[in-house]
Amino acid sequence: MENNQTTFIRLADEAFLSLGAQQVAYVKAINLPDGAHAIGIFSADGKPMATTPSVEIAQALIRQHDLEPALVH
Q1: Which residues pair with 47 in a beta bridge?
Q2: Region for 35 from its dihedrals, namely left if φ exceeds 0, alpha if ψ lies in -120 to 50, beta otherwise
Q3: Could you say which of 10, 41, 51, 55 has the lowest number of CB atoms within 10 Å?
Q4: CB of 34 within 8 A of CB of 58?
Q5: Higher model confidence: residue 46 or residue 5?
Q6: What's residue 19's pLDDT?
Q7: What is the pTM of this model?
Q8: Taking CA 29 as the corner, what is the angle to CA 53 and CA 23, rounded to the nearest 5 degrees?
Q9: In sequence order, which residues have a C-beta less than 8 Å from that of residue 52 and are 6 or more positions away?
Q10: How confident is the model at residue 72 (pLDDT cuts 50, 70, 90)?
């Protein structure tokens, strides 16, 4: 009979933040300092990478850099 138990490993905060760093970039709506609306692109650890005028442009830019876009609400 199989043992179907799951083992959980506690990751340090730094290790958790680095998960997906080489594969994923996050996209979310932001407000710029001048009050304009834009789409921000962020690394997996939350560092801002770029801003674009639309989600479609952000996704295309992310894919051009061999990353997978993930939308954040």
Answers
A1: none
A2: left
A3: 10
A4: no
A5: 46
A6: 59
A7: 0.69
A8: 90
A9: 38, 39, 41, 58, 61
A10: confident
Q: Reduce the secondary structure of the chain to three states and give it as a string.
A: CCCCCCCCCCCCHHHHHHCCCCCEEEEEEEECCCCCEEEEEEECCCCEEEEECCHHHHHHHHHHCCCEEEECC
Q: How far is CA 48 from CA 8, 26, 40, 64, in A?
A: 30, 9, 7, 17
Amino acid found at 25: A
Residue with tokens 């290790």: 15
Pick 53 or 7 by higher pLDDT. Answer: 53
Residue 64 main-chain phi, psi, to 5 deg:
-60, -25
Question: pLDDT tens digits, residue range 55-70?
Answer: 999 999 999 999 889 8
Report pLDDT for 39.
96
